[in-house]
Amino acid sequence: MQPLPYGRQSIDDSDIEAVTAVLRGDWLTTGPAVTRFEQDLAAWTGAPTVAVTSGTAALHVAYAAAGIGPGDEVVTSPLTFVATAATASQLGAAVVFADVTADTANLDPAAAAAAVTDRTRVVSAVDYAGHPADLGDLRSVAHDASALLLEDASHSIGSRWRDRPVGSVADLTTFSFYPTKNLTTTEGGALSALDPRLLDRAARFRNHGLVREKDRQRSPDEGGWHQEVHELGLNYRLPDVLCALGSSQLRRLATFKERRAQIVARYRAGLENVDGLILPTRRADVDPIWHLFAVQVLAGRRRALYDHLRDRGIGVQVNFVPVYWHPAYADMGYRRGQCPVAEEFYRRQLSLPLFADLREDQVDRVIGEVRQFFGA
Ligand SMILES: *Cc1c(COP(=O)(O)O)cnc(C)c1O
To answer: Which residue range is the domain that position 293 belongs to?
Structure first.
């Protein structure tokens, strides 16, 4: 039988045509398709947005725009991909892990409030599985500490929180367009910011920090060629070829969201009465795009179910090993046990296949194998 991945891209002829049109044109990078993609993104995020080369680059740019460095602290969830923390660590900040809530696996505002200090510069929430974090309370926690709220929305472009699009609520919001995510530009990412000064700093960082505007330069009379670097940056520019793919994928995002919701509903109906499984919760004030269908397997049977499904060609995944369990963080002195709710969630967690092109017979096959495992 065909092995089934846990996630994969959906590329159709419209996507391919969008890419080949740019390949035939004049601009492969820093051209009009970048501007168009950023405008298309802003229509979804509800805030000015810049494109970058990955979700990791978006996080790095966001922390750089927030100005964090040695002596600063960033409070975040351990239940995330390592990049949410690693990019802050790369800039020399100390990462402080705060626990999650048991229902959504998102950063717990009470735990975050207990973790902030007068050195906290950023509180980073993660919209786990596509379900927006507790943004209202987390924003208060961050702002009461004179810190910024960053939302790692790698899973949640297209989600809404209290009827507002993800991207328009936190001070900084980052997105990933890796192939398994809700839409793809192959590699790619983006960052939204509410404060135009933060957005300007971010946009500059992704292009070496270059200042081309004469009225902002220290030596504007140097000559027509002159450009200056005031703050060091990097090259995180997403090329036109990939931005064109992004714009094309955004035209399909509403359909992706609907399709993901249908698959999640089918999983729920097929698995709701299985003893030994907890299905994902959805809070009343959010309208999520489901990136993951993250179940919890009780009675210590997660590994057995993972092996059972993998042996049958079903590509399940575990999201995520707590970040401070990684040897890089253990070597910095982080100890296991510090976020018990996140660790318990990790021990039970399993992501079933979920992507827009997943067919109903494939969903039913997964349901059937899970039920067989539990003798249900
Ligand atoms: C995928 C992901 C990232 C990193 O995005 P890339 O585009 O792979 O660099 C960061 N945070 C979370 C929560 C992710 O799932």
So the answer is: 253-374
